[in-house]
Every structure is written in C-alpha cells, then in structure tokens.
Specification:
The protein is built from nine helices and 15 strands. The protein is of the alpha/beta class and 330 residues long. A hairpin with a 7-residue loop joins strand 6 and strand 7. Helix 2 runs parallel beside helix 8 and helix 4 runs parallel beside helix 5. It is globular.
C-alpha cells in the first residue's frame, strides 16, 4: 500500500488514519458484497477523475450541438452532480447519503492532478450533499420545451454549474490515480468498521497518460482496486471518450473484444470487474446481451455513452441497483 498523500479531509491526524486503515483492510469482505444500504449513518463515496488536457478541445456532439469534449464532459458532470443532490433532498432537508470528490488532471498543470471545488469549498476534498448545494459557481437558465399531456410548452430550465470546461496541458493520469488513492484511503479509515457501500471512482479520459508508464498505471489501479470496506472492493471504472468515429467497445467481457488496441487493453486491465448486481442495468442501458462478466470500461465512447456510463456508476433514477440500496427514510 502506498503512503498517504498530505491531503487530509478528516479530523484524525494522518498517522492515526494510516493505522486505522491498516486495521480495517485486515478485515475480510463479507460473503455477500455490494449489499450495504446507503443511508445517512453509512454513506458511500464517489470520485470523478476528469481529463482536462489540451486534446479535450477536440469537437464532438452533445445535445445536438457541436461543442468541445471538455464542454460536453463539464455539462455531463454538472448534470450528474445535480442528480446526486436531488436524490438527497427530502423536503427542506439535504441528507448525507454520499461524499463527492472532483479531481482534474491536465487543467492546471502538466504534472499534477488537482481538486476541482472552488469558491468557499476551494481546497476541500470530499463534499457532503449539503456542501455540494453551496458549492455551485452559478446557475444557468436555458429555454427549452417539454411535452405535458400531449401539449408542447416552453419552459425555462435551471442548471447549476460546479465546473467549467478546461483543456490546457498534458495528461497526468498517474497523478490523478495517486490522489484518488490517497483520498479513498482516508475515507475508508474514517469509516473503518462500518458496513458501508465501497467508493466508486469514475475516470473520464480522451488520451494516454503522459506522467507514467503502462506499468505505473497498472500498479496504481491495482492498489486502488485492492482497497475495500466490509461490503466490497473499491470500484474503478474507466471511459475513453472520442468523437463519433471508430468502433466503441462498451463494458467488455473479454480483452479480445478490444482487438489490437493497446490503450484500450490498458484501460481494460486497470478497471474493475462489475459486481453481478450491476449486470442488469449494464445490459439494459447499453443494449448488451446478458453475460456472466462485464469489465467497467468503455473505449471510443461518444457523449451519449458517457451519460449512460455515469448512470451505471452513480445512483441516478435509471440505476436500479443503487435505487434498491438507497434508504430514503433513514
């Protein structure tokens, strides 16, 4: 296990967190993993790793508009955060069902990843849903149309914004994985001994890492995937986005589906096998045959696939697996 990085989002001193983590990781995963209820006493965590390298300025199509990949990804992340927040709102109360971290790589530095919260939350690692509600940069308004009882009416839709599109430097993906590893270690130590649903990490990228070898990335991802709660191992999911060209490979069952693409095979080897409770949602959303195994990665995916990928990894309304595990009255 690598050493903790000097970012501590919790109140325990780092040495105490390290000792607590080591004790927690000695406990085995229970016989029926990925069954823990997500509730206020036992939240889960989501970490989004976002490629902000210069190549993200390449154009793609999203919501029938031509935009940069950076713009499309920012919109999708903002929408996902909005949906996460809505799942936590019960009347005037915002319930603490999960902690959320945003990590960008290539936006501020060609060498280091960085935390993406800004404003009053600048420098924080994980945000609770209540903090997420306070962390918006602004709220945009869009004129759109909705069909209600067969009638199409014009409405104004409000969309909160947490992150802006960025595309600047190279692709320090190894740094992003190391930062995610540190944050997950500390989150696990802070929740040691609890039957909590394990953290999920979603890495969105459009290119090859520039700060490490394939062996470096494999070693980092292996350490991350070995971290666990009593309820299961951390899930690391990787999606390679591309404009609408080339053959997309979605949640493959075997590396042979990737052909001779060495980068796709690297992401395949970096990614978690998806637990059986996810299989129905994966097959349904991506129109795939039912299989005994799906690996949590996609290659050459367009923006529509990215939206579905986010639905698999987070508890949105379309994800039946997470819906069964939420405890809205807890």
């Amino acid at each position: 296990m690598s050493n903790l990085l000097p970012i501590n989002p919790f109140t325990l001193p780092l040495p105490a967190l390290q000792a607590t983590l080591q004790q927690a990781l000695q406990k085995p995963v229970k016989d029926r993993p990925y069954t823990a209820q997500i509730m206020r006493q036992n939240p889960t965590a989501f970490l989004f790793l976002i490629d902000q390298s210069g190549s993200m300025d390449e154009l793609t199509t999203y919501r029938e508009q031509t935009v940069s990949k950076a713009e499309a990804v920012a919109q999708i992340i903002n929408q996902t955060l909005c949906e996460l927040l809505l799942r936590c709102q019960k009347g005037d109360e915002i319930r603490h069902y999960y902690d959320v971290a945003l990590i960008g790589y290539g936006g501020q530095s060609s060498q280091q990843a960085n935390l993406l919260w800004s404003g009053t939350m600048d420098g924080k690692a994980f945000l609770s849903p209540a903090e997420l509600a306070q962390a918006t940069i602004r709220v945009d308004e869009f004129a759109t149309q909705r069909t209600i009882r067969g009638r199409t009416i014009a409405v104004t839709e409000r969309r909160p914004v947490w992150i802006e599109p960025v595309h600047r430097h190279r692709t320090p993906m190894k740094s992003a994985l190391l930062l995610a590893e540190s944050l997950v270690q500390q989150w696990l130590a802070a929740h040691a001994g609890k039957d909590v649903y394990p953290p999920t990490i979603l890495n969105i990228t459009d290119g090859v890492a520039t700060d490490g070898t394939d062996e470096d990335l494999l070693a980092c991802s292996e350490r991350v995937r070995q971290l666990h709660t009593l309820d299961g191992h951390v899930l690391l999911m990787n999606i390679h986005i591309a404009p609408e060209r080339g053959k997309a490979v979605l949640f493959p069952s075997n590396a042979s589906e990737l052909g001779n693409d060495p980068y796709a095979r690297l992401l395949y080897d970096m990614s978690s096998e998806m637990p059986p409770p996810y299989h129905t949602d994966i097959a349904s959303l991506f129109d795939l045959d039912q299989r005994p195994l799906y690996v949590g990665m996609c290659s050459n995916a367009n923006m529509d696939a990215l939206v579905k990928f986010m639905n698999i990894g987070t508890p949105t309304q379309s994800n039946q697996h997470f819906s069964h595990h939420m405890r809205p009255d807890s």
